[in-house]
Amino acid sequence: MTGHSERGRPAAPDAPAIELKGISKAFGTVQANKDISIRVMPGTIHGIIGENGAGKSTLMSILYGFYKADGGDIFIAGRKTAIPDSQAAIAAGIGMVFQHFKLVENFTVLENVVLGAESGARLTPSLSKARKLLTELAAEYELNVDPDALIQDLGVGMQQRVEILKALYRQADILILDEPTGVLTPAEADHLFRILEGLRAQGKTIILITHKLREIMEITDTVSVMRRGEMTATVKTAETSPEALAELMVGRKVLLRVDKAPAAPKQIVLDVENLRVKDDKGVERLKSVSLNVRAGEILGIAGVAGNGQSELLDVLGGSREATGRVTLNGTDLDLTGKLSDARTRRARGIAHVPEDRHREGLILDFHAWENVAFGYHHDPKYNRGWLMDNDALRRDTEEKIAKFDVRPADCWQTAKNFSGGNQQKIVIARELERNPDLLLVGQPTRGVDIGAIEFIHQQIVALRDAGKAILLVSVELDEIMSLSDRIAVMFDGRIMGERLPSETTERELGLLMAGITDTDTPHTVQEVEANLAERHGKVQ
Amino acid sequence: MSLPKWADVVLIPLINLLLALFVSGLVVLLIGEDPVNAMQIMVKGAVGSTYGWGYTLFYATNFIFTGLAVAVAFHAKLFNIGGEGQAQLGSLGVALVCLALPWPHWALALPFAIVGGALFGAAWAAIPAYLQARRGSHIVITTIMFNFIASALLVYLLVGALKAPGMAPESARFPEGTFLPNARDIFALVGIKFARSPLNVSFLLGLIACFLVWLLLWRTRLGYEIRAYGHSEPAARYAGIAPFRIIMITMLISGALAGLMAVNAVMGEQQRLLQDNVLGAGFVGIAVALMGRSHPVGVLIAAVLFGALYQGGAELEFETSVPREMVLVIQALVILFTGALDNMVRGPVTGAFLHFGRRRPKIDPAE
Amino acid sequence: MTLMQKLLGATTALALSAGAALAEPGLIIDLGGKFDKSFNESAYNGAQRWVKDTGGDYIETELSSEAQREQTMRRMAERGANPIIVLGFANASTLEKVAPDYPDTKFAIVDMVVDQPNVQSIVFAEHEGSYLVGMLAAMASKTGTVSFVGGMDVPLIRKFACGYAQGAKAANPDITVIQNMTGTTPAAWNDPVKGAELTKAQISQGSDVVFAAAGGTGVGVLQAAADEGVYSIGVDSNQNYMHPGSVLTSMTKRVDNAVYTVFNTAADGELPTGINALGLENNGVGYAVDENNKDLITPEMTAAVEEAKEKIIAGEIEVHDYTTDDSCPVM
User: Fold this and answer.
1) Percent with pLDDT over 70 in chain A
2) Which of A89, A214, A253, A284 has the maximum number of C-beta atoms within 10 A of its C-beta?
3) C46: in domain
């Protein structure tokens, strides 16, 4: 068993817990990490921030033994250490909590914790030892998890705790968390941060990878900024500001708040009544959803991922059938059958920026110009009789590329070769330039760099100001708060309530997102968790 | 990190081919024959005479059709293994057309035979396509099974309803008005002496088919939808492309192309319906499509290569004591190297390009 | 000569030089392979005997599929082989098409009549030979039931079966004759497993002498009969050696002689065309007796069969040929 063996780490208090010197890594022609040096002192929380593609995950993968660096050295507690694989990383006292958990769904918490670190062939001694250890750890760090619960019955917040316990069980002194709050409600995120603070107080070293400036400011002691594979700065968190960090990340000044005038809502464009959707397994994903969106306003749908927002967009966009009643500008939309498809919806004036541009919004192997016609390829202006008018399409693409500042400005570039932000700009350009009556937008800035976020938000607001109705779905509460004119919170396939951004708080929305409607009375984290877990169990 | 297009399209297949030939040479050496001599016989037999060219291009025509059939389906991410069966049904369609009337002239019979072959081939592909689109039965399995059914159906008809008087299980000979002009006749018109071979006007039909498939895939809305569906089904749904429609239409086109092979083999050469008239071309089509990167031009080149391999192999068998099985081994090696082991070559070649090529620092968008 | 011709190469030159210099006879072994212990092997042995006797050379190739007949025949002709022998009725329609394209090449086809000016059609009186082995079968049978396993169900094979049945009935009017065919396609020539199954089924119905006229399938028939301890009768080649003591006799069809003769006459001069009928009178068919089966054939049996043979040659016994009217009077 690796976890309890004597590693012989020297107890030099001044040595950094981790020091990287000159780490470089290239994938083909792409330099993912370039000469990166960093020192993380023990007992601190060190943030690493950077845009998508800046090289954060690559760096952590090198530290955890998934990739081998092309050059550079790793020092753990002052000792040069080679980390050829994850076993070596664990032996060196490094624990990793991935963005996508690596748990066995139909095993219990205890079994998952022990998995891969069993002492001997017989399981029972390991399990009883682990149970004892787990109880101690849970008490020490507020990591309360029922050791006998099955993973599949736990909510994501709980699952994340199991991952942390797994690392602690393996005697990790250094804990790396990769975008840990992506799937959590605000209350859960707060609790996670309290746990991390507890760990820090016990002398553990924590590396937090995130793209959220707020989290960095809230919890870290020092922060390193990465841009284009390079470490651009390492600063004390207390001595910096979100604006300064954003500028370091992007390389220029960015506007963090959305600059928008008050909305002037007019007539109802989209009216949804009693919408119900069942998935392939017969589980009800939308349970009587009713809402409306007016011309000239942005309705934001807040909620933890997987509570029916995707299904709502699918139904309105035309890629999923439903029951209920939906009217657009007073006319019914066909919800089942031949006329419920996406092509008909587009013809009716609904544009759709899908939640997942890789899965839906783009054909990654198509050229940019082919993607600009995607969904609109029947438009007469792209066609000449039997054949598609590729010249016209390319001209159109060049115009859009110029207008939306897509880089590289090359319509022959394959979609997958654009960065996330530029991919999203292509989708936004395609959908917004249709001048739709209703725009459906899902996660408009997921995986998009800060510079592009600013631009995309401006475009959405501009469309609103042009008198169009916009339905925005986002799991980023910040984005919902800053963009929306009205906020509806979804939980378990239902709308839990509607709020005006000026009259609500993140705390209130967070409770609604956990399905708690009496937001005026105080609630504990345990209540929130219990509610989420109950709902999670029902869905499974 | 991608290769230059020319390397992907030309260099890698070429290296694959050379590797396959090298290993084949070792095998020939192993059985005590002279590999250089064997190679000379194959090359000379395939392209060293008008006779060789005639047969090479005749086989190539078969492979063009079956290769295009597989390629079109590939673009919709459908793996049509049923080219063999669809071609057999196509041969039935062509035979029924040819035997139906005392055709006065081939130019009249050909369009009808094309329709017959295409319709029957498409119909045979339609059933697995429907099962895939509606019931989710995997098309690889169903198309394979349909090959067996097609073969049994043909036997049933050839020992029964379609059997000509006589003892062999074959149909009556087609009327003379269905005989397609062959290369010998056509070249004679311009004063060139071309050896007798089964190469016929169907080859031109194959070239036209290549062009039309290119036009379909890269110039029409349907082709656009087929390719989009092939890359991502959720995306296709998002764009209002109905998966059912795409699966059905793509497989109908694929089956029709496979069925058209019969115009060349049955109408052009055999001039009667035989039992195993497809000769495995349906399966070779898979290799041709793989090697040709599912592009009509690639398919054309790969088809000619495989045609040469077939003809050269026949010649090798005729001229030397290299046994028939060895010729099969060589053909299989080419398929193995060009199709299945593609990545074995791709890795080192990509590495070499990166090493010697320009180092452009670029940030990978997908971290 | 145009550039095009130069590029494509001159086939005519190849054909002419090959034809003039070599003029070797050619043999195309049919589906099933040259070591099928039966029809193909018989032809192959004839060719080998010719090589041994004359020191001559010939070109040989083996078919691998139905659809390759045409290319193989043409390749032989282009290569300059003359005469070219093709084996089996399945070649008839192809030869019909190919022969006119090569008027200077002579062809010979076994088992079928092809009416072309440069083709010799070699047909055997299989019904007569089968009649004789049918008599032997009936006389050797203790159960009063004999049987027949055919290869592909075609008139030619029914001709064997009908002759066999007539002979059996002639020797024992009360005898029961069971008849089964392996299949309806050329695959039936090479399916020893099914042959063995059919044989066992027939034995369970009481048969104790099984006649196989089934090419490679017959190997399975003979094996099953030997395993079950009953008699079998081989075909085409002398197959007595395969299971001595179990193989009662073999209905020999001297394809080897036919091949030998064709090769020889071609070497001497022109191959005569038209129909070449081989029967009992010219030893084209017969029954085989050698050291492997001489103990199985009693003198009485030999006498009876020899008498019938004389009568058939003399025309006193007329054995019905199934292929003349597609029917058999005794089955």
Assistant:
1) 94
2) A89
3) yes
Domains in chain A, CATH or no CATH each: 44-67+93-250 (3.40.50.300), 268-361+436-539 (3.40.50.300)
| pLDDT tens-digit series, residues A233-242 | 899 999 998 8
Rounded Cα–Cα distance for residues B223 and B352 (Å): 35
Q: How many domains does chain C have?
A: 2
**Which pTM value belongs to this model?**
0.82
Reference B363, options A99, A417, A451, A447; nearest CA is: A417
Q: Give me the CATH number covering residue C95.
A: 3.40.50.2300
State whether C76 and C98 are in the same domain.
Answer: yes
CA dist., res. A129 & res. A113, Å (int): 11
Q: Tokens representing A258?
A: 């959305």
Q: Are residues C144 and C266 in the same domain?
A: no
DSSP labels, C186-209: GGGGG-HHHHHHHHHHHHHTT--E
The span from the CA of A144 to the CA of A158, in Å, is: 9
Instruction: Report the DSSP beta bridge partners of residue A75.
Output: A19, A80
A72, A24 in Cβ contact below 8 A?
Answer: yes
Do the domain assignments include residue C73? Answer: yes
- Count other Cβ atoms within 10 Å, centred on residue B340: 11
Question: pLDDT per residue over A403-429, tens digit each?
Answer: 998 888 888 988 988 878 889 999 999
pLDDT at B323: 72
User: Does the pLDDT value for residue B362 go beyond 50?
Assistant: no
Instruction: List the domain range (segments joined by +) for residue C228.
Output: 126-252+285-325
CB atoms within 10 A of CB C71: 23
Is B211 within 8 Å of chain C by CB?
A: no
The highest-confidence range among A110-124, A272-286, B211-225, by mean pLDDT, is B211-225
pLDDT confidence band for A119 (50 / 70 / 90): low
The answer to whether A277 touches A322, Cβ cutoff 8 Å, is yes
pLDDT, residue B140, reads: 93
Same domain flag for C85 and C144: no
The percentage of residues in chain A with a pLDDT greater than 90, rounded to a whole number, is 38
Cα A233 to Cα A246: distance, rounded to the nearest angstrom: 12
Residue C217 in domain: yes
Neighbours of chain C (3+ CB pairs under 8 A): B
Residues C88 and C178 in one domain: no
- C contact test, residue of B40, B41, B47, B50 with most C CBs within 10 A: B50
pLDDT for the residue numbered C19: 38
Q: What is the pLDDT of residue B212?
A: 97
Q: Is the pLDDT of residue A297 over 60?
A: yes
Question: Are residues C74 and C21 located together in one domain of the fold?
Answer: yes
Residue A272, strand partner residues: A291, A326
3-class SS at C279? coil
Amino acid at B104: P
Distance (Å, whole) CA B159 – CA B151: 12
* Cα A497 to Cα A286: distance, rounded to the nearest angstrom: 15
The closest alpha carbon to B91, from B306, B255, B213, belongs to: B255
Q: What is the pLDDT of residues B39-80, one digit of tens each?
A: 898 899 899 889 899 999 999 999 999 999 999 999 999 999
Q: Please count the other Cβ atoms lying within 10 Å of the Cβ belonging to residue B119.
A: 18
> Residues C84, C221: one domain?
no
Asked if B49 contacts B41 with a C-beta cutoff of 8 angstroms, the reply is no
CA distance linking residue C126 with residue C156, whole number of Å = 8
Query: What three-state secondary structure class fits A343?
Result: helix
CB-nearest partner of B276 from C15, C65, C112:
C65
Same domain, C153 and C244: yes
* B318 and chain C in contact, CB less than 8 A: yes
* Cβ atoms within 10 Å, residue B104: 12
Q: Is A79 helix (H, G, I), strand (E, B) or coil?
A: strand
Residue from the list A383, A388, A417 with its beta carbon closest to the beta carbon of B365: A417
- Residue in chain B closest to A357 (alpha carbons) equals B235
